[in-house]
Records
---
Amino acid sequence: MTITKICGITTYEDALAATKAGADMLGLNFYPPSPRYVTPAQAREIVDTLRGVFGKKHPLLVGVFVNEPVDSIRRTIDLVRLDLAQLSGDEPAEALAALDGRAVKAIRPVNRSEALRFAEQYLPAAPTDERLPALLLDAYHPDLYGGTGASASIEVARTINALTPRLMLAGGLTPDNVAERVAAIRPWGVDAASGVESPCKGRKDSSKVRAFIQAACQPVLEAV
């Protein structure tokens, strides 16, 4: 079964809809320039309400950070009660290692050579918990840190997937293309943000979220 993550959750209503649709993970974005940004206090309210309704059956909760100091990430993890931090900026491997298995690195390699270098750099400090991704692959953009709607190269994705025990694939995934990408790459998990949004940026379309999760899992089911 392909693991699914719905990222850029900004309201409890969207968190609830994604949870009911079967999302395995929810992403909360703590990068202020993002249209999907939430404050730690807003995130804590969403998380507390979700935990109150679903108890231990809630999706794993991931905080997205960009070039944030490690101490600040730790404080937010503890305040919001996150299961994982996703480092989506230019963080060094030392920052990942300092979070003691509580963080995954998102990479945006330009090409296969850079992908191999990133894998060598970050995988030694990747989470060992099998519920968590070891690495997240997003599409390259010279100026933006994810959420661009662009897709990662299949060649790069296959290269990283062969080296990574649990690769989460992001970048331009939608209900219409995720099944094809899963069939071509066979990642451990897939991550969608802009691809399941409503016309109001930062808000999710519940029908798109349901369709995305169903399509992401369908190729695996057919192969059994």
---
Amino acid sequence: MTRRGAAVEIGLIETIRARDGRVPWLGWHLERLQGAIRSLGLSEPADDLTDLVRSAAGSGDRAVRLELHGGHAEISTRDVIPARSVGICVSTEVHQPYPHKTTRREQFGRAIAEARRRGFDDALLLTAEGYVAEGTAWNVFWWENGALCTPSEELGVLPGVGRRRVFELVPVRQERKPFGALAGESLFLVNAVRGIVEIRAIDGLAVPADPRTAELARAFWPD
């Protein structure tokens, strides 16, 4: 029981894809988790997280959610939603830096709720200066003059595991890009559970497809 007035330690989250019993990039997830523990001065986990995740993953295709509070790990699993192109909106929610995947996700909850009310699949958040930041549970990329680009980590976007995988596959340029400068560009979202997902429209306006996105999506998951 938490004592009245006592500070409640912030929680950390990792959402991890298990495919046919294998857990790609589990080491990356746990490396990011340890980095957040050190940076935020949180309690070290009492359990062997590798064993917990692998046990929860089983032999199927699941999304495993690992949540860490005060050194105590909680595990849950869910089905994986099939990847399909999405229609998103630009959220009225102003992006606040989110360099660690913590349970303090209120800005993203408000943004996805707004998107659903407006009839969109998801939302894109911009910084107070109008720079493209990230989705509610995704990193965003776009093709520009033959190069693949993504928002600079200096903006406080989450260093996603899916983002890291894209960096492993192809050269990526990090930029501070005003949203208006992306008109006519092809964009996609990525996270470590659903992989690469094309954006088909933003605020109801069609986004052009790019065959390189489909190529990356096919290469995303390791054999």
---
Amino acid sequence: MKDSLWREGDTLIQRDLAETLKRIRDYGRDGFYAGTTARLLIRDMKSGNGIVSEQDLNEYKSVSRVPITADYKGFKIITVPPPRAAGLFLSSF
């Protein structure tokens, strides 16, 4: 059996993710959907034959919805309401 590259107690540093989160912190929506992060995302999409464009990012509008919750066998079930992915994504607490 080979040794793992990771060992208990190792620290994972994700500098690119940290910079992205700082841009979102500093610029809000535009920290993700415009500027540096958007350019990096589009560049990565193009390299992987993805279909998301700069226009898609510019036109995207998020919608806040109240989640659906229910109790089931001692678990609190939380999911996304219609018309989106209701039932596809479940969390339990």
---
Amino acid sequence: MIAITGSGEYLPSIQSVDKKLLSYIEGIPKVLTFSTAAGNESDNRLLYWKNLAEEHFKNLGVEHKHIDARNRDDLNKSSVINEMNNTNFVYFSGGSPTHLYESIHDSEFAVQLKNIERRGIIAGCSAGAMIMGQKMIKGSGLNYLQNTIVIPHYGESFYSWISNTVKILNRGKYKLLCLEKDTYFIKSMDEIRVLGKQQVHIIFKKEHHTFSDGDIIDPLLLK
């Protein structure tokens, strides 16, 4: 299962949504969080993500471990691969989508990530969401969502540049999956649905489809 949101990772506003998301896991949730997208940022910034994740999942009452993996070499350490074998929920927070993609693609970690998609949940926010598309605003994605470019922070005034980017990309061949904060686009083997407080949008050429909590999305819209 893939679960991606535009923004709000680990904040109080998304806690109730994450509680519902964790309930989709069969068995006991075992959570790993990664701030690899921020791997080129300062130690203080990485500590911020670590502390935020630990407090968030402590409040949710689930087993959690934050992995200090800053780059490709870190992600592919045997200790990290072993942790991946014993988890059913992986969460990627924000930062640079390009750095995160380059750290994951064509690696043993990427193989383990595919296994988790089948048995649990891969979750991501902002950069962690962008890598799931076939393409990104700049460069390729991991192609968990074919024919798709994921646009996070949709509708947030600070990220108004995204609206202009959407207008440009909307002329292309890729579907635009636009994600608002505190709201997940969830794709499983059985269906595509929305969970959260705001909305998810699929934009392609002159079409604009909007979905809210509980809505089921026709897979053909992303073909």
